[in-house]
């Protein structure tokens, strides 16, 4: 098993290098570095600042959504700490593979505060991902329906349909009672794997939310509103570098872009993100230099969003180390009269 895991890691690393190299080659073959540098140097900083403000403020309702999901499973946690966990997770996602690394950080940190609730906590984080995916897809479908006849995005239409079908299938697997009966038959063949018990606990935690449809519907509505504003940050990045498209193409683009960023075979989306922008926006007549600049600005926003989390993590660890040092330097209790003394 260990050999298989090592092989998988090696294969994933090689695949990441190959995919990143191909994307980098595609970008280099399409853009002019001088023109791109000129476009970036003339970026409208007000648009960039507005996009960053949206990303930061969006974390407040997202933290509240997570708090509601935890509370529904009997886990009480402060909103302030959940917001702090979100910031730190964005820092982790810049270091760990794909944005899912940040989700893993949230699960681990919260599980330490609530021992024995790891499966429930993982279920809430996964459901959050699911709500975000469904909300983004709904926005994409609405944007696509409105933009029919106005946009020409070729094969991306097929990909949008595939995302929609996969989302419907995933929702059916999670909440359908019939699907649960089918999955129960697979439990015994997979029982020998160590992760089977944890996967089962996570699945049961997700399935339990099927008994709270009103809560899920309310949080989905909230997520749709938040995702709409987050997609507008991509539009603002484009606006900052002179891409004067309406927001509609970005709502079609959003589901595919967020799916691309989950790819586990890239170096944190390096080159793949920018190649996607060049390809998608290029079909709308946007120059490769401005399309690349849009993706690069969005990357810079993601890096900037990781700074508060890095500061929080650093301060907490410095305080912990200082506390450990103070405890170590404290003198021990005074020996009682006669203890340790020679007669």
Précis, in short:
The chain has helices at 2-30, 33-41, 45-72, 79-93, 100-113, 118-146, 156-175, 177-185, 196-208, 213-240, 248-260, 272-282, 288-329. The protein has 343 residues and is mostly helical.
SSE arrangement:
Blueprint: H1 2-30, H2 33-41, H3 45-72, H4 79-93, H5 100-113, H6 118-146, H7 156-175, H8 177-185, H9 196-208, H10 213-240, H11 248-260, H12 272-282, H13 288-329
Q: Tell me the number of strands.
A: 0
Approximate helicity band: over 70%
Report how far apart the termini are: 63 Å
How many domain modules?
A: 1
| Rg, Å, rounded | 24 Å
Task: Round the mean pLDDT to the nearest integer and report it.
Answer: 78
Q: Give the number of helices.
A: 13
- Please write the string of helix (H) and strand (E) elements: HHHHHHHHHHHHH
Q: Give the uncertain stretches in residue-range form.
A: 1-7, 338-343
Strand coverage percent: under 5%
Alpha-beta content class: mainly alpha
**What is the 3D form?**
globular
What does this structure look like?
The chain is built from 13 helices and no strands. With 343 residues, the chain is mainly α. It has one domain. Helix 2 crosses helix 13, helix 3 crosses helix 4 and helix 6 packs across helix 9. The radius of gyration is 24 Å and the shape is globular. The N and C termini lie far apart (63 Å).
List keywords for this structure.
343 residues, mainly alpha, 13 helices, disordered C terminus
């Amino acid at each position: 098993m260990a050999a298989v895991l090592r092989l998988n890691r090696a294969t994933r690393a090689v695949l990441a290098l190959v995919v990143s190299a191909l994307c980098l080659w595609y970008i280099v073959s399409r853009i002019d570095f001088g023109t791109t540098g000129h476009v970036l140097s003339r970026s409208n900083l007000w648009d960039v600042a507005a996009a960053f403000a949206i990303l930061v403020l969006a974390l407040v309702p997202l933290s509240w959504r997570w708090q509601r999901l935890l509370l529904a499973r009997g886990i009480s946690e402060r909103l302030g700490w959940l917001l702090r966990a979100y910031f730190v997770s964005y820092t982790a996602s810049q270091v760990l593979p794909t944005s899912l690394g940040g989700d893993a950080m949230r699960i681990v940190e919260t599980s330490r505060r609530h021992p024995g609730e790891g499966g429930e906590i993982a279920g809430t984080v996964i459901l959050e991902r699911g709500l975000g995916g469904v909300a983004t897809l709904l926005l994409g479908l609405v944007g696509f329906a409105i933009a029919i006849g106005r946009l020409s995005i070729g094969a991306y239409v097929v990909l949008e349909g595939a995302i929609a079908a996969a989302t419907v299938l995933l929702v059916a697997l999670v909440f359908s009672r019939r699907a649960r009966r089918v999955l129960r038959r697979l439990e015994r063949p997979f029982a020998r794997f160590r992760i089977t018990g944890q996967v089962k606990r996570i699945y049961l935690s997700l399935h339990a939310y099927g008994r709270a449809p009103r809560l899920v519907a309310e949080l989905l509505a909230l997520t749709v509103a938040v995702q709409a504003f987050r997609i507008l940050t991509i539009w603002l990045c484009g606006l900052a570098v002179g891409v004067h498209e309406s927001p509609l193409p970005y709502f079609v683009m959003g589901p595919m872009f967020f799916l691309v960023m989950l790819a586990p075979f890239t170096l944190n989306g390096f080159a793949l993100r920018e190649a996607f922008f060049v390809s998608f926006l290029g079909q709308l007549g946007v120059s490769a230099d401005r399309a690349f600049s849009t993706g690069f600005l969005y990357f810079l926003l993601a890096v900037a969003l990781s700074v508060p989390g890095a500061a929080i993590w650093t301060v907490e660890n410095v305080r912990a180390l200082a506390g450990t040092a103070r405890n170590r330097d404290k003198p021990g209790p005074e020996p009682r009269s006669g203890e340790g003394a020679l007669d």
